[in-house]
Amino acid sequence: MNTSVNGAPQWHLQPEANRTLVTLSGDWIAQEGRTPAFPAGALKDVPHDEPVEFRTDQLGRWDTSLISFLWELKRSAREAHVNVDTNTLPESAHKLLDLLPEIPPEPTPPPPHHFAPVAAVGQFTLDTLNEVGCVSEMGAAAARGGLASLVGRGMMRTVDLMSDLNAAGPAALLIVGVVNFLVGAILAFVGSVELHKFAADIYVASLVAIAMVREMSAVMTAIIMAGRTGGAYAARISTMQANEEIDALQVFGIPVSSYLILPSVLALAFTMPLLYLYGCLIGMLGGFFVSYIMLDVSPLGYFHETIQALPLDQFTFGFIKSFVFGTFVGLTSCRIGLKAGRSATDVGIAATKAVVVGIVGVIALDAVFAVIANVIGI
Amino acid sequence: MNDTNTQMPATDDRPVMISVDDVTLAFGSKVIQHDVSFRVKRGSIFAVMGGSGCGKSTLLKSMIGLLRPTHGTYLVEKDNYWAGDDASRVRIGRRFGVLFQSGALWSSMTVGENVALPMQMFTRLKPDVIRQLVELKLGLVGMLHAIDQYPSELSGGMRKRAGLARAMSLDPDILFFDEPSAGLDPITSARLDELILNLRDGLGATIIIVSHELSSLFHIADDGIFLDADQKTAIAHGSPRWLRDHCTDPMVHAFMHREQLDSSSSAGNG
Fold this sequence. Notes:
Radius of gyration of chain A: 36 Å
Number of helices of chain A: 11
CATH architecture of chain B: 3-Layer(aba) Sandwich
Oligomer: heterodimer
Order of helices and strands of chain A: EEEHHHHHHHHHHH
Number of domains of chain A: 2
Shape of chain B: globular
Number of strands of chain A: 3
């Protein structure tokens, strides 16, 4: 087959006495894009009792495109009830052809799409409730694992907890700091425009302090951590899922909830309130920075007004919120990672979903907290 | 040592397809293999053998362009692979088809799309021609029924066969197989061996196999080298059958006969 004839790939069909001869000639190279297709009805008039044979002495170089052509021929011969004598082909072509199935598979029809809004809403509600249940169950299992760890019978490794704490704490200081500083500065900018009209410049301090401590620092920090750490947890756990690492843990009887999830959730639940306090401080610093440069406010006056505006229970409230946000982001992102499929796309989907659920959930929880705060009068 | 018989006498006059000369492979300062030299003849099935962790897969990695050797030359016919720029490596690499150890199928695409992608990227064939060639290649490896399935739905052996179909996508003339029959049942493995032989005979491909499936190697390979993890170089050259029957190196002998290495004889030889 290495003799180069260098012609275009050609074939023709010729009835002879007692047989039908198919002559193949030229170079059959798929990538040259010149190989002909075998027409569907070409063997219709061939007598049933006479075999189709091949003449290949003019055949040049060939690759799988020739096999593809012969496969088509063989299939139409089958439909026309004609015998094909593949022994007259070059031996390797005949062998390759023998590996192929006689009948091509039926293409699987795409699943039908029904438009059923009520069913979709119902399914979504059920799925959501199911997820809430799963996340709560996982949280409970992790909490049990945590209690077991406290008495020294847990399955959590300190080294995992430490590395997670480092990733969720010190490593996040810069981004949390920058964002909260800018938020504080923006609040001061916006507030100063209105307050200046009433010569109430000094109240910029209390505006920034209350806004940061009650809402902004907790929410901004939680959103940053949902994007940064929640996404990372989901990607990590779903990759472990794809590599069967989770299966290996389960086979050894190492509980996923306390080995994998507990350190991640603990790390976020522990660092989030601390990052919140840090964010408050940096945010007020940002507000002070703008006030000092743009407004007629003395540093001491700003400090005094900030202290005046902030009762301690505001901090307590924000602290509790941050703890809840941290736990929520940790649990949901781990759950999404565990539930993910096993392909690279699934890892991407899990990371995206963890961030979206984290951010939306944090804001929704914050709304719940606002209602609670209103009721208990903080 | 001089009486040790580790080199199969040359009887093969086919033209040389691949020449590797004094290649040294290292990760940083850790040398994996040094001064490895061999020739692969056109149309031969060349086995890279050796125990686990001896650097077989690393050698394969450098031959398919994923790891630059720290020393030595690697010629594909007349082209010096590592001497050229990226464009020339891509051009030479178009002649390669690689079957990775676990298939390495792109998980976001169906099996059919996996096989079709190289054709869509590198040829101007019409979609229906591509579809037909994809069906053919999947048919050859017995995977036509899975054309619309995703890799995550397949078993390990099916992924490997689909990976083989993808490696053949552009009808390459040099095929690299990393552990093709590991993890396959004996029937599928035997079928794969037949397929490899037919591909070589039918399409004239040169095939380089990294493997330690002895029965399969004895059946299909007609040349090869044996890499040793301790000496970090090739300690024997020849076809697996020749190495089994004639090679006197104790390590190679033990490997080819599935025996435990006799520690006293290896100490005396090393």
